[in-house]
Write a structure and sequence with these properties.
Blueprint: H1 3-29, H2 33-38, E1 41-47, E2 52-55, H3 61-77, E3 88-91, E4 103-112, E5 115-125, E6 154-158, E7 161-162, H4 164-172, H5 177-205, H6 207-229, E8 235-243, E9 254-263, E10 284-285, E11 301-305, H7 321-333, H8 344-347, E12 350-355, H9 372-389, E13 402-408, E14 415-420, H10 450-456, E15 459-466, E16 482-488, E17 492-497, E18 518-522, E19 528-531, E20 534-540, E21 545-549, H11 564-573, H12 578-585
Parallel strand pairs: 11-12
Antiparallel strand pairs: 1-2, 1-5, 3-4, 3-6, 4-5, 6-7, 8-9, 9-11, 10-12, 13-14, 13-17, 15-16, 16-21, 17-20, 18-19, 18-21
């Protein structure tokens, strides 16, 4: 390894650590249970050109992509020359790089001389910013205004502290104003830590030395990404995946369609459409080649085109462009070398086309809070298209996360926001993992532990378990779904935003679908009522229980080809029942002979 490459790698890790430290500060300083117990905080370092330089280990691609795409929007409204040391900015506009109303994106410029050269950025889902239901779910929203407060890029703080007017606006639009402001102060503190670490690197390496090192490792990431893409076969591969419904019409499905073109020798100039965060008002948003020096690398790229995807709808199953870009990049990276760093260098080789006004690139006033639904369908469509391209790396469709919130009926408000995960689809040669989901959108711990939730909210977590026979049968079995039961000690409202609860994840190559999950209400008399996948503020009485069952992953290959010993092992572990072993796998166990 040359000294230049070594220096670049040292710098890369130093910047990742800066972002990681910022995210830890946010988690330890925040007030909301979901952040404190779920470690759901993100942090990143970007430069003034809008390039994603590094993000924390706990940062999901959903969030780092939002921070990247939104930064040029901030700079467009607040020119660099007007910023001052100590200034901090915030936005949550989904149509300008944001996610949805409860996700606040916070930026602090890092000055080199008298001009911002880098930005320290943090992001979390704050406890509540208004909308149809507490916690920011709003699964039945028909426009963005029903999802909560919208913030264009505004100054949140100066070196003297928070802007009083912005704090007043945030407080006035929240059911939990003290928690929101505690979360906001945590975000600001996180940016201060990352900015200090970046400033120290500027002092250690010099402005030019740091900039050159960053260019070197972004170029290195690009080269590794293109080299990995060269291992995939050339050609065009198409797939689609359905969304159960939009929450309004429970019988109508919507579809995400994708065509993936792998090119080993693209024509000169192809893919020069600008970075993922540029021109969100254009007909398509493209993650292509930023204006930066690029080393000699294999002329390889992938084009991910979502033409033919359903149009945006007045329901909470649309996504903003930043979230769809993140889903596409994540899904492609799942078929590449997992050790390739995630930064702007990777994006140069991946071009993503999102038709404006589609489910994956909604425009105002269409709601974007239900982004998980369309972007997980987009991920699945890419997984299936690339599974056709590279059968030895194939994966069957998965059960996905099922988001829900539980909140007080009236003030004083308490809110529990959570996700439960479905089973992962079987992979070529491997069973799918149980109750983990293919996910890229939440924090380090994902699901808060039961005890802290019980201490903060009037509920009891009665049970958490996997569901036998829920994984799609196959030569390789799909991962199991899970069942969680919450019994309430006070009246409350439950809101859900689920999917893959009507249309089961299918198997591949003769494998069978995963078992469908669902949301249920257990009444005081023990009767169990199935709820729709997307409901808003369903009233539960004290003593009633909310049951969350997630969907299992699809199987791979004929279940009759599954190894006999593997079926017996599943039976012994409780992953399948005697009935399931007989009906799904044809296992017949003879009783021991009587002596």
């Amino acid at each position: 390894m040359s000294s230049d490459v070594l220096t670049a790698e040292v710098l890369r890790n130093a910047l990742v650590v800066a972002a990681e430290e910022a995210s830890i500060v946010v988690v330890r300083s925040a007030y909301s249970t979901f952040i404190v117990e779920g470690s759901d905080a993100s942090a990143a370092v970007l430069d003034a050109r809008g390039r994603l330089i590094a993000h924390s280990m706990a940062t999901t691609l959903m969030n780092s992509m939002a921070l990247k795409v939104a930064l040029p929007e901030l700079i467009r409204d607040v020119p660099l020359e007007t910023m001052r040391p100590g200034d901090v900015y915030v936005l949550n506009d989904a149509y300008r790089g944001g996610v949805h109303t409860n996700d606040l994106l916070v930026y602090r410029p890092v000055f080199v001389g008298d001009r911002p050269a880098y930005f320290a950025a943090t992001m979390i889902h704050v406890s509540d910013l208004g909308g149809l239901s507490a916690g920011g779910m709003a699964p039945l929203a028909t426009d963005i205004f029903l999802e909560g407060l919208q913030l264009p890029p505004v100054r949140l703080a100066t070196s003297g502290g928070l802007e009083p007017a912005v704090e007043a606006i945030l407080r006035a639009n929240s059911r939990t104003p003290d928690k929101v402001m505690g979360d906001v102060r945590a975000l600001v503190a996180g940016t201060a830590v990352a900015a200090a670490r970046v400033g120290a690197l500027v002092a250690e390496y010099g402005a030019e030395g740091l900039a050159a090192g960053i260019d070197d490792y972004l170029d290195y990431t690009e080269a590794r990404t293109r080299t990995a893409l060269a291992d995939l076969p050339e050609g065009r591969f198409e797939a689609s995946y359905p969304i159960d419904d939009d929450g309004i019409d429970h019988e109508k499905s919507h579809y995400i369609r994708v065509a993936i073109t792998l090119e080993h020798d693209p024509s000169e100039g192809a893919g020069q459409g600008g970075s993922a965060g540029v021109e969100p008002q254009s007909p398509e948003v493209i993650a292509g080649v930023p204006e930066t020096r690029v080393p000699r690398v294999p002329e390889v790229r992938v084009v991910v085109d979502f033409a033919g995807t359903g149009s945006q709808v007045p329901a909470a199953i649309n996504a903003s462009a930043s979230q769809s870009l993140a889903a596409a990049v994540f899904a492609v990276r799942c078929f590449l070398d997992p050790t390739i760093p995630m930064n702007d260098g990777c994006l140069r080789a991946i071009e993503v086309r999102l038709p404006e006004g589609s489910l994956l690139n909604a425009r105002s006033p269409y709601p974007c809070g239900g982004r998980y639904v369309p972007i997980y369908a987009a991920m699945e469509a890419i997984f299936q298209a690339l599974s056709d391209a590279v059968p030895e790396r194939a994966i069957a469709p998965s059960g996905i996360l099922q988001p829900f919130s539980i909140a007080a009926v009236r003030a004083p408000y308490w809110i529990h926001l959570s996700y439960d995960f479905g089973g992962v689809g079987a992979r070529q040669g491997l069973d799918g993992p149980d109750a983990t989901g293919v996910h890229f959108g939440i924090g380090r711990n994902s699901v808060p532990q039961a005890e802290p939730v019980e201490s903060r909210c009037p509920l009891v977590v009665e049970s958490i378990e996997t569901i036998p026979d829920s994984g799609g049968p196959g030569r390789h079995r799909g991962g199991l779904g899970s069942r969680t039961v919450y019994r309430f000690l006070a009246d409350c409202h439950v809101t859900t935003r689920g999917d893959r609860l009507r249309l089961a994840p299918p198997g591949r190559d003769g494998g069978l679908p995963g078992r469908l999950g669902g949301f249920f209400k257990r009444h005081l008399d023990g009767a169990v009522e199935r709820l729709a996948s997307k409901v808003n503020n369903v009233r539960f009485a004290a003593g009633e229980a909310f049951v969350v069952e997630t969907t299992g992953g699809g199987g791979m290959g004929s279940p009759y080809e599954r190894d006999h010993e593997a079926v017996l092992a599943d039976l012994a572990a409780g992953r399948v029942t005697e009935q399931g072993a007989q009906e799904d796998y044809g296992l017949t166990r003879h009783p021991d002979p009587v002596s």
